[in-house]
Write a structure and sequence with these properties.
The protein has 433 residues and is an alpha+beta fold. The protein has eleven helices and nine strands. Helix content is 65%, strand content 12%. Helix 3 crosses helix 4.
Length: 433
Amino acid sequence: MIKTKQFIDITKTNLLILSIRLLSVAGAILWVTNPNLYIATINKEYLIFIYNAIIFVYVLFFVLRFTIPQKTNKCEHFCLMTFIFDQIAISFFTYNTGGFSSPFYSGYFVVITFSAFVLGLKNATITAFFGALFYILFNYSYGIGLYNLADIAYRIIPFFIIAYPTGILSDRLEKHLVEIEKLNAKLKSKNTKLRATLMEMEKMHNQLVKREKEKTMLDLTESMAHRLRNPLMSLGGIARILDKKIKKGANLDEMQKYIEYIKNESKNMSELINNLLEMSSRNIEMSFISLENLIKSLVSELEESIKQNNISLELNIEKNLPPLRTDKNKLRISLRNIIDNCIKVMKHGGKLTINVSKSTAIDSTIEITIKDTGPGIPKDILKNIFKPFESGGSVKKGIGLPLAKHSIEILGGELYIESEIGIGTTFKIILPM
């Protein structure tokens, strides 16, 4: 077992161990130089020389540690050797500071605990064994008899009691650390693969988006071409008819119906082009508006169309609605297109209901509901109702509803539609306040 990667290879850990060793030696020197030391025959100069040599050895250990290859048996053996030397030094301290009763006795436990954390159960047991051996050998001269044999055993046995559980915990810790390291390596590998996959997916997504945009642009261009070709051909034909009639001297009344047709078709094409320009614009000019005033103004503009189609109007606007911060022009165009669509589908009369209130489902939003009693929209058309020009089957539509949805979404809102054949269609708009 080699725990050097987790413990001994860390410079701070090495400095901590060196500091504890040097402090222990300094403590021993202060002890033996104490003038009140009860060992009168001790050669203090000799002891200080030995202690200085121990300091030199400890510093040498600290330097040599960084020259030994990491995560090898040499590193483990070197660490074990330093801990065994610690036991020799501690035994020397105890011998010169009172023998079996020396206060430096606790130093054995410090060394054993460190060895257990660093090297595991096996090497901690070896360290404990040498600690017990040196403890007896160094202090043998103090006398070992039946009277203190039990006391010595009582002092030695805790060495192994400390080494065993601490070593087991250390071994388990290393096992978990190794497992975590393997899992991290696997996770890193999977993250690398996932990153590559995501990059590939993003690349494919960008390609799909590009193709979809190209397809949408082609479809829109084709639809625009078909939509504008017929009225342009009609205008060309009418222009030729007018040219002939003018040459024949036709009067103004005879040409009036052709002029009206030209005016109507020009207006329709102008509206179509303006709607396309509005749909392509993403410029937003936000301001606070009164939603009640905006809707009443729209209803007033469309009042004549409502009367001509024999439509009854029900307008329900919640009182004291707060001002709405939005782009007035975009919202106006969206609401007008929706209301106008509802009016056009009720050619033989019906009921138009407009409700405006705070939303009860979503906080800080306003809900606008526009409902007609028209014929309803078939499902095959309804699913494509917000696509420009083509709404399903052979039914050709304009760009009014797609523009309405596009503008409302730019304003941060949502547009939903529900329809049932024979009952009518409901448009629901959710706008942030």
